[in-house]
C-alpha cells in the first residue's frame, strides 16, 4: 500500500511539475517581450560597393531632326547614387558641337549644338572581376540650337522631351577609378516626328 501511495505521489509531483513548465512556457509565449522583433528597415546603402559614382568624358553623337543629318562631338558628365549593390539613380548632362551634312545646299554647314539633361535608373552587374557591365534609362530635355547664315529656315533654338537607353562596361584601372565605354540610343521628337539617334562615349569614372 505504501509503495502504491509513494508511486502515486511521485507521479502527481511529476504531473504538477510538467504542468507548471507548460504554464510558464505559455506565459512566456504570450509575453510582449517574447513577440518576434519587428523587421529592421532595409538600409538604402550598398554593402559591396561605394554608394556614389561620378564621371566625365567625350562622346560622338548622330542626329536626324528636321530632315537634317549631322554628327556632334562633345562632352558628357554623370553622377549616380546607388541604393544597393546593383540599383542606383543617375543624373546626366551631354553637350555636342557640329555641322549639318545634308542636302539641299541651303541646309549644309549649319552650326548645330546639342544639349541633353536627364535622369533615371542605373543598373550594374557587380562582380569580383575588373569588368563591370551596366545599363541605364534616362528621360529628360533634348535641346538643339542651329546657327544659320540667314533666317529663311527658321530653325534657331528648339527643345523637346528626349530619352536615352543604353549601357556599357567599366574597366577597373586602379582602386576606385574605372575607364568607361558606353553606347546609347537617343529618342527625340522634332517637330512631332520621332527620330532615331545614337551616341558613343568614353571617359573616366570614380567611385566613392
Characterize the structure shown.
- The protein has one helix and eight strands.
- It has two domains: 2-34; 52-207, Beta Barrel (Porin).
- The protein has an eight-stranded antiparallel β-barrel with strand order 1-2-3-4-5-6-7-8.
- It is mainly beta and 208 residues long.
- The radius of gyration is 33 Å and the shape is elongated.
- Our measurement of the CA-to-CA distance between the termini, rounded to an integer number of angstroms, reads 85 Å
Give the percentage of residues in beta strands.
over 45%
Write down the CATH topology of the largest domain. Answer: Porin
Following the backbone from N to C, one meets helices and strands in this order, namely HEEEEEEEE
**How many structural domains in the coordinates?**
2
The helix-and-strand class reads mainly beta
CATH architecture descriptor text of the largest domain = Beta Barrel
Helix content bin: 10-25%
**Which segments are poorly predicted (pLDDT under 50) over 5 or more consecutive residues?**
1-5, 18-32
Number of contiguous helices: 1
Amino acid at each position: 500500500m505504501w509503495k502504491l501511495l509513494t508511486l502515486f505521489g511521485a507521479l502527481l509531483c511529476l504531473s504538477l511539475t510538467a504542468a507548471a513548465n507548460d504554464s510558464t512556457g505559455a506565459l512566456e509565449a504570450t509575453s510582449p517581450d517574447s513577440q518576434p522583433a519587428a523587421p529592421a528597415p532595409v538600409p538604402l546603402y550598398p554593402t559591396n560597393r561605394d554608394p556614389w559614382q561620378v564621371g566625365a568624358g567625350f562622346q560622338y553623337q548622330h542626329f536626324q531632326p528636321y530632315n537634317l543629318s549631322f554628327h556632334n562631338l562633345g562632352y558628357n558628365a554623370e553622377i549616380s547614387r546607388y541604393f544597393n549593390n546593383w540599383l542606383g539613380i543617375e543624373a546626366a548632362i551631354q553637350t555636342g558641337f557640329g555641322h549639318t551634312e545634308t542636302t539641299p545646299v541651303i541646309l549644309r554647314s549649319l552650326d548645330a549644338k546639342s544639349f541633353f539633361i536627364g535622369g533615371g535608373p542605373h543598373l550594374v552587374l557587380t562582380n569580383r572581376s575588373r569588368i563591370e557591365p551596366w545599363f541605364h534609362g534616362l528621360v529628360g530635355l533634348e535641346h538643339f540650337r542651329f546657327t544659320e547664315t540667314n533666317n529663311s529656315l527658321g530653325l534657331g533654338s528648339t527643345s523637346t522631351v528626349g530619352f536615352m537607353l543604353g549601357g556599357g562596361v567599366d574597366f577597373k584601372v586602379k582602386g576606385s577609378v574605372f575607364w568607361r565605354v558606353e553606347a546609347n540610343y537617343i529618342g527625340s521628337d522634332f517637330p512631332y516626328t520621332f527620330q532615331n539617334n545614337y551616341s558613343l562615349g568614353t571617359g573616366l569614372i570614380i567611385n566613392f
